[in-house]
Specification:
Elements lengths: L2 H22 L3 E10 L6 E12 L8 E9 L3 E2 L9 H7 L9 E13 L2 E17 L2 E10 L5 E11 L4 E8 L13 E9 L5 E2 L9 E9 L4 E8 L3
Antiparallel strand pairs: 1-2, 2-10, 2-11, 3-9, 3-12, 4-11, 5-6, 5-10, 6-7, 7-8, 8-9, 12-13
């Protein structure tokens, strides 16, 4: 190969090599914003967890598959007296398939749907029910129902288990693929906010550690990548 041609080839490979990492580095990022109401030590409270995703290829986050939420040590979740409801009932009948006796809370989600060269927002209502136990672990069934541009019903299962300090409980949420249009990628979650508001279900600890109550969320995405986020609720 002549020197000028070889130099041109090497220059082209160098440009390509510089461009490829830029695309590969378009990672999805996450954040978490927890809150307690009332924010008072020893109180029975409503717990809100708000997660948001950003970044990704062309500014669209990669679809999330698993979210592991770590709750602060001492935060109590009491499910005694809450009836369980199977995911199969929710798939068949929607929120009406499980009565108020198993309802723990509500929320909403915003998704991004691909439609050719465009992306369209999808708003979805979310309900949280107690699901059947898995051995010694309690489960929650999260029903998400969107209507426009997709009429899509999705069930995500969360398993509650013990964790180690500074956290006390760990909630592992498995989110199935959310299909959209034919030949288009699955929908991407942009934001998800859930409030566990059932009376007596959430108990704020009687004392608060230095730095406040620690929360964390680790998300795994469809492409195998992951992202972590942390936040503290200040002491009352």
């Amino acid at each position: 190969m002549r020197a000028p041609a070889r130099a041109l080839l090497l220059a082209g490979l160098a440009i390509l090599g510089c461009a490829m990492p830029a695309a590969a580095q378009a990672a999805t990022e996450s954040s978490i914003r927890p809150s307690l109401l009332p924010d008072r030590l020893g109180a029975s409270a409503a717990l809100t967890l708000a997660l948001r995703y950003s970044g990704g290829e062309e500014g669209v986050p990669t679809p999330v598959r698993t979210i592991v939420v770590q709750l602060p040590a001492g935060l109590g979740i009491d499910l005694r007296g809450v009836r369980s409801c199977a995911a199969a009932r929710l798939r068949r009948q929607g929120a009406a398939g499980c009565g108020s006796g198993s309802l723990l809370g509500r929320g909403h989600a915003t998704l991004e749907v691909h439609a050719g060269s465009q992306t369209l927002p999808e708003q979805a209502a979310v309900w949280v029910f107690r699901g059947p136990d898995r051995g010694s672990s309690a489960t929650l069934e999260m029903l998400s129902q969107g209507y426009t541009p997709l009429d899509e019903r999705t069930i995500s299962t969360a398993v509650l288990a013990g964790d180690q300090g500074p956290h006390g409980l760990e909630l592992t949420v498995s989110i199935p693929p959310i299909p959209t249009l034919v030949y288009e990628p699955d929908a991407s979650v942009i934001s998800l906010s859930l409030t566990i508001s059932r009376a007596g279900a959430i108990a704020v600890p009687n004392s608060c550690p230095s730095g406040g109550f620690a929360f964390a969320a680790a998300s795994t995405f469809a492409d195998g990548s992951d992202a972590t986020a942390t936040a503290n609720v200040p002491c009352p």
